[in-house]
Design a protein that fits this description.
The protein is an all-alpha fold and about 210 residues long. It has a domain of about 90 residues: Serine Threonine Protein Phosphatase 5, Tetratricopeptide repeat, CATH 1.25.40. The protein has seven helices and no strands.
C-alpha cells in the first residue's frame, strides 16, 4: 500500500518537471531575444545651447575655485616654510653672535693680559735705567747719567719720572760743566709745558735760572 503511494508520487514529480522544461526558452531563443534587444538604437536627449553654456560656466567656476584653493594652499605652505626658515636663521644668527661675542671677550682678556705683562716689563725697564742714571748722577758722572736716561726718554718722554730725570741730568751738566746748555733750556721748557704744576719742575727751573751763567 505504501509502496504504491511512493510510486504515484514519483510519477507525479516527473510530470511536473517535464512541464517546467517545456516552459523554458532554449539558448538559441535567448540569444535571438538578446540580439534583438541589443540591436535597438538608444536615443538620448540632446542638451540645448543654454544648457551647454550653463555646463561650461559651471566647469569654469569649479576650475577657478580650485585654482583659488591651490593658491591659498601654496601661500600657506610658503609662509610656514618662510617662518621656519627665519626662525632657524635667527637661531643660527644668535648662536653665531654668542660665539663671536665670546671670542671677542677672550681676545680682549688676552690683550689685557699681554698689556699687563708688557706694563710690568716696561716698568722694570724704567726702574732699571732710572736707578743706574741716578747712581751716575750722584757720582757726578753726567755723561753716563744722560746715557742711561736717554735709553728710555725717547719712548717714555711723557712719563714724568723719566722726563724729570733726563732734564735734571742736563741741568746739572750745564751748571757744573757748561755743556749743552741750549738743549737744557729746551728740555726745561718742554718739562714746564707738560708738567708745569709740579714742585720739582719749578725747583729745577729755578736752579737752572740761578746758575746758568
Amino acid at each position: 500500500m505504501s509502496f504504491g503511494g511512493s510510486v504515484a508520487a514519483m510519477i507525479s514529480s516527473m510530470k511536473n518537471n517535464r512541464k517546467l522544461l517545456s516552459q523554458r526558452k532554449t539558448f538559441k531563443d535567448q540569444k535571438k531575444d538578446s540580439r534583438f534587444r541589443i540591436g535597438k538604437a538608444l536615443k538620448f536627449k540632446e542638451p540645448s545651447n543654454a544648457d551647454l553654456l550653463k555646463i561650461k560656466e559651471r566647469i569654469r567656476a569649479k576650475a577657478i575655485r580650485q585654482r583659488r584653493i591651490n593658491t591659498v594652499i601654496i601661500l600657506v605652505v610658503v609662509l610656514v616654510v618662510s617662518y621656519l626658515g627665519v626662525s632657524f636663521l635667527g637661531k643660527v644668527d644668535d648662536k653665531y653672535r654668542e660665539i663671536h661675542t665670546r671670542e671677542l671677550e677672550e681676545k680682549e682678556a688676552m690683550l689685557l693680559k699681554i698689556k699687563e705683562e708688557n706694563e710690568e716689563e716696561r716698568e722694570e725697564l724704567i726702574v732699571y735705567f732710572l736707578n743706574h742714571g741716578y747712581e751716575c748722577l750722584s757720582q757726578e758722572k753726567y755723561y753716563y747719567a744722560k746715557y742711561y736716561f736717554k735709553q728710555i726718554y725717547d719712548s717714555e718722554k711723557d712719563d714724568y719720572r723719566v722726563a724729570l730725570a733726563y732734564t735734571r741730568s742736563y741741568v746739572y751738566d750745564c751748571i757744573n760743566n757748561k755743556r749743552e746748555c741750549e738743549n737744557t733750556k729746551l728740555l726745561i721748557d718742554r718739562l714746564k709745558t707738560k708738567f708745569g704744576d709740579k714742585l720739582e719742575v719749578a725747583e729745577l727751573n729755578l736752579l737752572y735760572t740761578e746758575h746758568k751763567y
